[in-house]
Amino acid sequence: MPPERESVALPLLPDDRAALRADCGNCFGLCCVALAFSASSDFAQDKDAGKPCGNLRADFRCGIHRELRDKGFRGCTVYDCFGAGQHVSQETFGGRDWRADPATARQMFEVFPLMRQLHELLWYLTEALTLPQTKPIRSDLRTCLARTEELTRGTPEAITDTDVAAHRQDVNVLLLRTSELVRKGVGGKKKDRRGADLFGARLKGAGLKGADLRGACLIAADLRDADLRTADLIGADLRDADLRGADLTGALFLTQSQVNAARGDGRTKLPGALDRPGHWSAS
User: Residue 37 phi/psi, 5° resolution?
Assistant: First the structure.
């Protein structure tokens, strides 16, 4: 699960994405119950979907929050619901939690992963609207954002009936166009590494400014001091990627979950909407 936050108003972000950040104090621990995980390097044990994690307390907080990595639950520290947890808990189900109202549990657990996908799309669309290069498609982006927001406000039944995959495809058309508009303004030859297998690749100091790295496998890649400014990183797998000293200023569609899964230091430059993970080294 993402880092716990108190039930206080979140600070406004420059591009209005504050509501799309996890507020665990207003969530009923949905990521700790609704989702399944398997014993691996990321999780110390198996857990079935719909079964509460053994570390979940009665107040919906994590009992080992400060020791998640040490206890073998690294996967919890990189997960990000994009604010879907508090939305489902407080808005979709009106503050009725699955313990006090067991009849809602199954439906709530079905809605949560769908809502998480919709909130992720809201994150990307909101980012796209902040970019000056998207002026030619600004109207289409606003229309798509409004449609996505409308879907998140639906009843539990309406949300589970939504073809989220189809909607995601519609959104992706605009996100691809956004990427093209932004990256075409980058000088020099831009590398196309879309979907590339770069597992463990030696890319220290690589010039990847404006590169297309959509969906690329960058697990354990050495990206120390790499120039990733305005690179498209949507869907890129950055688990254990070494980002020490890398410059990700203006990187497109980079998420907190991706950053949390990577390694970095005090020299790593991140987009303003993202936090520097606490487990990163200071220098």
Answer: -150, 155
